[in-house]
Structure to design on (428 residues):
């Protein structure tokens, strides 16, 4: 059967989805390679060179997995949207940014000379950082519509793209003294072992790409102030993830103050891993208007966890003074007390959160509950239809509403609510 030109043009192509998932597989393979190289370093007696450690590389790995997975889904479902491909580049760059130091650490420090071109890999490692930060800046610039906030942003996008290309070339050709031990042990931003033109180029690359990320975040604020309707709701998802990231940063500062490095790493990692998920949900418009419910549930279960944890601690300490700290009866009593208090506490905490942070849903639930109580005793049809329209107006807030009553074949009544401004009665 011969296909017309129009049919061939509208026929869906399979290659974008394949390309997206190939990039996803490469990212996952990169993480596997990091683990393998870490194992080689441990076998060589240099466990301090391992990259996949809770304190150092958990955050980038979670961000890489989250960003690449969301990017693959976006690129396969909406291949014309650039954010999906940018997230794939971001995730792959983060994965390669872990492969490079693991490779150089084994080839230069654990077993010098065991791997080819290890010194070159250490020199070119900052290229992955520049690529990742540039991709992130464009993700922020183009979320959620896939276009810039306004034509006035074109000059900045062009400058960012041109500067990134120049910096990548400069990083590839720049020369200067390099002691990779500082970077391999202190991270990609430890530039103490560099000198000459190489140091200058790395400093410029780090400064400009960081500035690009900040400007990209500022573009979201500008876009939100001008947006309306669906786009504003999409940006609310991104704002929610950004708020979690800020909260994670605050918790991280507290962890630094008390020396809890594991808490710092896992908090930042989890919060920043949520950002690609929120971007994907916003672009695909998946359950777009459930954000209030998600925030309400997050606050409720967070508060519930804190309250039950405190209750558990109080019961254990109180009974521990009477029965002894090593008594199994103390643990059993505390567990039963927390289990018994879970459902009542959850209902009260959820109601308190809805009253404070989700007032519209709380008020709508109260109106519907009151209407259901009055409905059992209501026999006046005119009063019923007036009250029903009032309930619909208070809970759903439509621009127009009407109630149409129709006498059925069995003299029953059928009611429908729809657009209009009047009440009609029609006999059939």
């Amino acid at each position: 059967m011969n296909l017309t030109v129009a049919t061939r043009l509208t026929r869906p192509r399979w290659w974008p989805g394949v390309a997206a998932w190939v990039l996803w597989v490469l990212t996952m393979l990169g993480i596997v390679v990091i683990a393998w190289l870490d194992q080689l370093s441990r076998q060589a007696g240099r466990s301090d060179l391992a990259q996949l450690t809770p304190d150092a590389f958990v955050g980038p790995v979670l961000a890489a997995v989250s960003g690449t997975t969301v990017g693959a889904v976006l690129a396969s479902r909406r291949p014309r949207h650039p954010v999906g491909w940018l997230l794939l580049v971001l995730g792959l760059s983060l994965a390669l940014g872990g492969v490079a130091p693991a490779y150089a650490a084994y080839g230069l420090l654990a077993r010098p000379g065991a791997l080819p071109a290890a010194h070159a890999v250490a020199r070119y490692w900052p290229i992955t950082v520049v690529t990742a930060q540039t991709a992130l800046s464009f993700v922020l610039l183009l979320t959620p519509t896939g276009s810039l906030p306004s034509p006035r942003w074109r000059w900045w996008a062009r400058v960012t793209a041109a500067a990134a290309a120049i910096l990548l070339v400069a990083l590839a050709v720049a020369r200067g003294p390099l002691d990779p031990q500082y970077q391999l042990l202190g991270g990609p931003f430890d530039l103490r072992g560099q000198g000459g033109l190489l140091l200058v180029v790395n400093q410029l690359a780090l400064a400009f790409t960081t500035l690009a990320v900040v400007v990209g975040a500022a573009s979201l604020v500008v876009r939100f102030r001008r947006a309306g309707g669906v786009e504003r709701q999409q940006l609310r998802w991104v704002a929610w993830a950004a708020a979690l990231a800020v909260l994670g940063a605050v918790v991280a500062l507290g962890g630094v103050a008390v020396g809890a490095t594991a808490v710092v790493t896992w908090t930042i990692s989890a919060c920043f891993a949520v950002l690609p998920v929120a971007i994907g949900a916003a672009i695909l418009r998946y359950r777009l208007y459930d954000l209030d419910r998600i925030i309400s549930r997050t606050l409720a279960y967070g508060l519930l966890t804190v309250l039950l944890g405190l209750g558990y601690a109080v019961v254990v300490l109180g009974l521990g003074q009477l029965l002894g700290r090593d008594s199994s009866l103390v643990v059993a009593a505390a567990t039963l007390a927390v289990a018994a208090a879970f459902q009542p506490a959850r209902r009260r905490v959820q109601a308190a959160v809805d009253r404070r942070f989700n007032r519209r849903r709380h008020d709508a639930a109260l109106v519907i509950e009151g209407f259901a109580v009055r409905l059992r005793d209501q026999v006046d049809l005119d009063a019923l239809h007036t009250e029903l329209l009032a309930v619909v107006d208070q809970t759903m807030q439509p621009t127009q509403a009407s109630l149409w009553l129709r006498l059925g074949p069995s003299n029953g009544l059928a009611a429908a609510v729809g657009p209009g401004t009047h009440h009609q009665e029609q006999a059939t």
